[in-house]
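Example for tutorial group B:
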């Protein structure tokens, strides 16, 4: 079957007004994203704001994050929302000393009210996680770690430019669990060079055997400014084949469903443990921070290249580390590089695209507010094609998740897109 492979990363969104869950702009969620752009090496597919080296700037950068947090919270006014999630992404945040991460989280807790069950996630690459690092993360108040496993085939990892071997993933998982952090996500990428059907099956089996609470599987995308992009442009590498990507995706859907993970978003699966304790009807171990994006909740963005959305405007920081330090540490200002205000049509289109990424989709009233007739011809045709589920809600089937972009285009009454695309760097 020819399909459009799922996009690897999603799109953040708008502000909230109340906690009423039937209002699609009222999520009750509020997140903080902090970006740490340092890496040991640059992966061949990476198009994110990351830098190798810069060892001497890591501690000053951590201090600047504290300063920007104060500036950002001051701009929220006298009654800022309660924090439901924090995500420290990168880059490789675990290249910073755990004490620096602890000071950042402690400062955020001093500046903002945190929900009693706030989710605090740190991204990590397996080669940076030993027992000392794992214990430090736990002591810093981290409740969830997202590990960039990507594959359990050493040939594939080498082809991707990863710095770790397959065995290192299990060692990192064991260290984190000994430290008391059991809310773990494993990131996987499919459609990679050196990967074949057996390799992908083995990677899925190895991930299932480690029994993380959450799994993410993304199709390899080739961006022009990456090593892979340059190889494709030079004719030394082929673009990932869409049929092959569809086969890999279908394999992931089948294996993970059989093993007990719920496919709750285009590229994400989670356990429902304990059952019934998620943001119904989604599983309990769904990523709360990502749900903030998918449900258009507001969030702060701290760090070089970070994006945020609050009060109807999307803002983003400049990507350079020296410029970031000069703005925050030296000049005492946020390093905002740009801002965008969405029109009503743009916001509706973005909300439709985001909400259809998750398995719960939209109820009929929400769909109508976004200009979609839940009983109209377009919905009926998509249901007949097996891309939308039966029932009153407008929600994708698993087959429909393959063709998310096409379904959104068919349903959108006016495909008015934001003039600047939202960041393609959604964490897990």
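The residue assignment follows.
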């Amino acid at each position: 079957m020819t399909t459009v492979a799922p996009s690897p990363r999603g799109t953040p969104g708008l502000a909230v007004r109340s906690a009423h869950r039937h209002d699609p702009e009222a999520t009750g969620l509020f997140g903080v994203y902090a970006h740490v752009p340092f890496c040991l090496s640059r992966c061949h597919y990476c198009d994110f704001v990351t830098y190798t080296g810069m060892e001497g700037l890591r501690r000053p950068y951590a201090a600047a994050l504290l300063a920007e947090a104060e500036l950002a919270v001051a701009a929220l006014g006298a009654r800022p929302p309660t924090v439901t999630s924090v995500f420290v992404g990168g880059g490789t945040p675990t290249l910073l000393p755990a004490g620096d991460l602890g000071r950042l989280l402690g400062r955020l807790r001093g500046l903002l009210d945190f929900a009693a069950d706030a989710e605090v996630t740190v991204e990590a690459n397996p080669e940076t996680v030993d027992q000392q690092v794992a214990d430090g993360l736990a002591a810093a108040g981290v409740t969830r770690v997202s590990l960039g496993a990507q594959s359990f085939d050493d040939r594939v990892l080498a082809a991707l430019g990863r710095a770790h071997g397959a065995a290192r993933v299990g060692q990192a998982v064991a260290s984190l669990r000994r430290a008391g952090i059991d809310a773990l996500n494993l990131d996987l990428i499919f459609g990679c060079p050196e990967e074949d059907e057996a390799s992908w099956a083995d990677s899925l089996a190895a991930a299932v055997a480690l029994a993380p609470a959450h799994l993410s599987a993304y199709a390899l995308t080739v961006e022009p400014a990456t090593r892979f992009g340059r190889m494709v442009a030079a004719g030394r590498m082929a673009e990932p084949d869409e049929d092959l990507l569809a086969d890999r995706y279908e394999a992931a859907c089948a294996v993970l469903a059989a093993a007990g993970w719920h496919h709750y978003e285009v590229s994400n699966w989670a356990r429902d443990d304990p059952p019934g304790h998620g943001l119904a009807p989604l599983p309990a171990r769904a990523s709360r921070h990502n749900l903030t994006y998918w449900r258009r909740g507001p969030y702060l963005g701290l760090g070089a290249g970070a994006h945020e959305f609050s009060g109807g405007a999307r803002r983003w920081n400049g990507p350079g580390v020296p410029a970031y330090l000069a703005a925050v540490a030296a000049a005492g200002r946020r390093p905002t590089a740009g801002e965008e205000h969405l029109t009503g049509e743009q916001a509706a289109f973005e909300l439709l695209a985001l909400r259809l990424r998750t398995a719960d989709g939209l109820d009929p009233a929400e769909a109508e507010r976004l200009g979609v007739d839940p009983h109209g011809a377009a919905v009926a045709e998509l249901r007949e094609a097996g891309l939308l589920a039966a029932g009153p809600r407008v929600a994708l089937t698993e087959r429909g998740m393959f063709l998310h972009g096409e379904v959104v285009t068919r349903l959108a009454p006016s495909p008015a897109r934001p003039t600047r695309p939202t960041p393609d760097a959604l964490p897990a």
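The chain has two domains: 31-294, 344-411. Compare this with the pattern of hydrophobic and polar residues in the output above.
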